[in-house]
Design brief:
By secondary structure, the protein is an alpha+beta fold. The protein is built from 16 helices and 16 strands. It is elongated.
Length: about 425
């Protein structure tokens, strides 16, 4: 017996229904804010995928050589492929607003809410360099999650320029800054002691490493920064928070331990946290250099992605996902004879043409057919018998109210769809 590959999942009808429901709620908000859908290939040039995210990301990429000897990789996120598209199309008017809902792949250790194949829904806003761009992306994230049914989450924001300033003050050399960011990104997953030990290995004194973590988690907007880049980051962060609160009515929490692990981020970053979710439900930030890195012009950009599986897990635990009811009715011929079957199929086709979701039962006894109809959540059983057909009618049993009546064929569609 074959098993599915580790870190993947099968989406059975009930799960797929809920996934489509949530994706539809996210899509609805993305399009309200003027974002258009973009679909990119599942695999890209390996050089592109590691161009700015960092060579270490190669360990997480499913990569291979094709029959022509080209090094390719399955995309591990969507921002880089979208940047490639924009880099190749300098004629596109700015700002550019794209959204996507697509699967990605990462070779990581599978765990609750984390798969090797998983889905992301996100947006990319390109061509807006000021805080208004970051505020819009965060606000769309907030609105999309709420539209999908999520409440009680926190939006935590930071700015990499501020964090870099703090790390530099503590003695982290510029050439090891990205390594320090990756260490900080593991704070929630591996804990404070791991981060402190790792910073010490980067040349930071232990007492300074402890002080860094205190500053990052408790600093707020009055944090002390020394360099020009850090001061710009702090001013940008303050204005973004003001726009969020005053323009969109969205509250965000300053948390400098949020740095995001990918190397292409250049400024403001954020994550959406839900208690008990075991990680972020969504996250993103500013990446002003990525498009030029992949061959395009200098275009400022901000984006975010929502983890569909993790969002579904949280919504499922909160009990806010809709019930799966694939069928409205089941047509049941009372005898296994061709004439009744043909008439049952004709009735089903008539109802389907009116948008009624139904199936025809084949070969079951009436009792078992009724049990099956109830078990799949059908509201009606339409029982087709030879005597009723001669009189131009069928028996309709309401499986929720457990009552039945005779309904003429000419009235059946109106009766069931009213």
């Amino acid at each position: 017996m074959y098993r599915r590959p580790r870190g993947t999942r099968d989406w059975l009808p009930e799960e797929a229904f809920r996934k489509r429901f949530v994706e539809g709620k996210l899509r609805e908000v993305f399009e309200k804010y003027g974002y258009g859908e973009i679909i990119t290939p599942a695999f890209e040039s390996l050089d592109l995928l590691v161009a700015k995210a960092g060579e270490e990301v190669k360990e997480q990429i499913y990569w291979f050589k094709d029959k022509g000897g080209r090094s390719l990789g399955l995309r591990f996120e969507l921002t880089t492929p979208v940047a490639r598209v924009v880099a190749a199309r300098p004629d596109m008017p700015k700002p550019i607003r794209f959204y996507y809902i697509q699967p990605v792949w990462r070779y990581e250790e599978p765990q609750k809410g984390r798969y090797r194949e998983f889905w992301q829904a996100g947006i990319e806003l390109m061509g807006v360099s000021g805080p208004e761009g970051d505020a819009e992306v965060i606000a769309v994230t907030d609105r999309a999650l709420r539209n999908a049914g999520l409440e009680g989450f926190e939006i935590r924001v930071s700015d990499r320029r501020i964090v870099e300033d703090i790390l530099a003050q503590a003695g982290v050399p510029a050439e090891r800054m990205e390594e320090a960011f990756r260490v900080l990104d593991k704070l929630e997953k591996k804990g404070r002691e791991f981060v402190v030990d790792s910073l010490v290995n980067l040349g930071v004194k232990r007492e300074d490493a402890e002080s860094i973590l205190d500053s990052l988690t408790e600093g707020g907007l009055d944090i002390s920064v020394e360099g020009e880049s850090g001061r710009k980051g702090l001013a940008h962060l303050k204005e973004t928070l003001d726009l969020l609160k005053e323009g969109y009515g969205v509250e965000a929490i300053v948390d400098y331990s949020i740095v995001r692990g990918l190397g292409y981020y250049t400024g403001l970053v954020f994550e959406v946290k839900v208690e008990g979710a075991g990680g972020s439900v969504a996250g993103g930030g500013r990446y002003d250099n990525l498009i030029s890195t992949v061959g395009g012009g200098e275009i400022a950009a901000t984006g975010m992605a929502i983890g569909i599986e993790r969002l579904l897990d949280v919504l499922g635990e909160k009990g806010v996902l809709p019930a799966y009811k694939p069928l409205q009715g089941v047509i049941i011929p009372v005898k296994s004879e061709k004439g009744l079957l043909v008439e049952s199929i004709r009735i089903a086709e008539m109802l389907r043409s009116a948008g009624f979701r139904c199936t025809v039962e084949y070969g079951r006894s009436l009792r078992k057919a009724l049990e099956k109809a109830a078990s799949v959540g059908a509201r009606y059983a339409i029982i087709v018998g030879p005597r009723d057909l001669k009189e131009g009618r069928v028996t309709v049993r309401d499986l929720e109210e457990w009552r039945e009546e005779k309904v003429g064929l000419e009235e059946l569609t109106r009766y069931l769809t009213a």
